[in-house]
Design brief:
The structure holds 2 protein chains of 2 kinds. By secondary structure, chain A is of the alpha/beta class. Chain A has 11 helices and 10 strands. In chain A, strand 1 and strand 2 form a beta hairpin. Chain B has helices at residues 2-31, 38-56, 64-83, 91-117, 142-164, 166-176, 178-183, 188-212, 219-234, 239-259, 265-279; strands at residues 132-135, 138-141. The interface between A and B is medium-sized, with 27 and 19 residues.
């Protein structure tokens, strides 16, 4: 279980998060929705240890991680699919997957995990020796997810799954995420601008505006709520 | 036949340029630190080779087992003392700051060497120093032959290390996206420190060869000049490209000596430097423009 409590985060002098608290439960899909610049990616950066909170704490399975180095956090079982994929462009598909299994325990099971990734995303197997930069947007997103799964995480952080992808591709990938969550029990924390898709996929949702959590609840209930419909789905 | 002899020298010079440039290119490619003190570090290593030969009689190629680890540790100290505080800077800021710091280091090393060892030119004279291999009408000095061999070994060895070993792959990942490398569980801080040490350790290989030709405190900057041309020719992020760029520069220089005259050697190198910057700013072997 991941627990953020009272996080304040600054980008230089600019405060990006104001007392953000939220909980991501094991084996569930949780989503954080909000518009561009609301503080979604900042929240993820703080969880992964790439940004340090000025105030508040982050607990993962009872361990305080907000002062740990980023690579230690990966070892504890949190893995991230970064915004814009951020693949290693000079490496092949296979090499990207291999580097995903860099940490000790994942390295030992590298080939089994890779077989599993090839099973859920068969196109990656077909493209295994191709350079990552030559993949289409959807394939790149699949590779980014595969790479993150290679570290055998307990919790998968996904930053903007739908960014720049065709709706049909988004649907396909979100189906796979749901399947991974169900069959392997990997918790997913999805940060999204595509509110409809995120709430349909998730169990629990949080809404962030201007760096503050302004709403939370069961995803289904949020999807039905008037505020969400009005503010994010454009249905009056 | 005379032209072929000139070309032989071009290949030898080029291989030595590549030895000086490879550490600079490695450090530049991985952490965006512009260590223009690389030639001066090679100069320091060359003095180490010289003194190890003078007092202990150890051949410069053999003493690499001592000078490389020594330069590696010097590299770790330099990184922690002078460069590690820049790690969170933006790429451009890091480039400018490291350039200035490294230039300061050039001045310090050059003057320190002058104070300690005088400005006299020295060189190691081994039993095989003047010997040449005469074959097919060419006369190839054994020192040059060894330099080419060492250069191939170092550069292709490094290429293999980066592409095929786990530690090498983590270096490769950092060079492509250091923030994302954190997310793979790579200890970026420790890895870049070791990679910096490795880059400085490679200057010892150049130092060994330089000690067989001429070493004086002032040669550091001359070698750095050549290394900079190679880095621009090769493009950032290309290891093997450094070797081929070295050959290109070496050959262009000797051709200019053959066809134009010895006074224009430096100019020829700078002309191809400018041409590459104008028409192929990403370098002959590089993939992207910019830093």
């Amino acid at each position: 279980m991941l627990e953020l409590s009272g996080l304040d985060i600054y980008h230089g002098d600019l405060q990006a998060l104001w007392g953000v608290s939220l909980t991501v439960r094991d084996r569930e899909i949780t989503t954080l929705i909000g518009s561009n610049g609301a503080g979604k990616s900042t929240t993820l950066m703080a969880i992964t240890g790439l940004l340090r909170p000025a105030k508040g704490s982050i607990l993962f399975d009872g361990t305080r991680i907000d002062k740990l180095a980023a690579h230690k956090i990966v070892e504890l079982g949190i893995s991230m699919v970064p915004e814009g994929r951020r693949l290693f462009p000079e490496m092949s598909v296979r090499q990207n997957l291999e580097i995903g299994a860099f940490i000790g325990k994942a390295r030992r099971a590298k080939y089994e995990t890779m077989d599993w990734i090839y099973e859920i995303f068969p196109i990656l197997k077909a493209r295994a020796e191709q350079q990552a930069s030559t993949l289409s947007g959807g394939e790149q997103q699949m590779l980014a997810i595969g790479r993150a799964l290679m570290s055998q995480p307990k919790l998968l952080l996904v930053d903007e799954l739908s960014l720049g992808l065709a709706p049909v591709v988004v649907e396909k990938i979100s189906d796979v995420l749901k399947e991974i969550n169900k069959s392997r029990g990997i918790g997913i924390f999805l940060v999204e601008q595509n509110v409809q898709m995120a709430l349909e996929l998730a169990d629990i949702g949080y809404i962030i505006e201007n760096g503050r959590i302004v709403g939370q609840g069961e995803a289904e209930a949020l999807l039905e709520s008037e505020e969400v419909k009005e503010a994010y789905l454009g249905i009056a | 036949m005379e032209l072929a002899q000139f070309l032989t020298y071009g290949v030898i010079n080029g291989a030595i340029y590549a030895l000086v440039a490879i550490g600079l290119a490695l450090i530049m490619g991985i952490m965006g630190i512009f260590n223009i003190a690389q030639g001066s570090l090679a100069m320091v290593a060359a003095y180490a080779s010289f003194f190890l030969f003078q007092y202990l009689g150890i051949d410069p190629f053999l003493s690499l087992v001592l000078t490389m680890p020594a330069m590696f540790f010097l590299g770790l100290l330099l990184h922690e003392g002078l460069f590690s505080w820049m790690r969170n800077f933006s790429a451009g800021q890091k480039l400018r700051n490291s350039l200035l710091v490294a230039f300061g280091l050039v001045l310090i090393l050059e003057n320190l060497a002058t104070v300690l060892w005088t400005a006299n030119e020295r060189c190691v004279t081994t039993a095989y120093s003047g010997a040449v291999l005469a074959t097919a009408g060419l006369r190839i000095p054994y020192i040059g032959l060894s330099a080419v061999g060492l250069s191939i070994l170092v550069i292709f060895g490094l290429h293999f290390f980066v592409k095929r070993t786990l530690f090498g792959q983590s270096i490769w990942a950092i060079s492509q996206d250091h923030q994302c490398a954190h997310l793979m569980g790579i200890n970026v801080r420790r890895t870049t420190l070791i990679a910096f040490g490795l880059g400085v350790a490679l200057s010892a290989t150049a130092g060994a060869v330089i000690s067989l030709y001429t070493v004086s405190p002032a040669v550091g900057l001359d070698w750095t000049n050549k290394a900079l041309i190679l880095v621009v020719l090769a493009g950032v992020g290309s290891i093997q490209g450094i070797f081929f760029s070295g050959l290109l520069l070496g050959l262009v220089e000797v051709m200019s000596v053959y066809f134009v005259g010895v006074h224009y050697t430096g100019v020829a190198g700078l002309v191809i430097f400018i041409l590459v910057l104008m028409f192929r700013p990403q370098g002959l072997f590089g993939k992207q423009v910019g830093v």
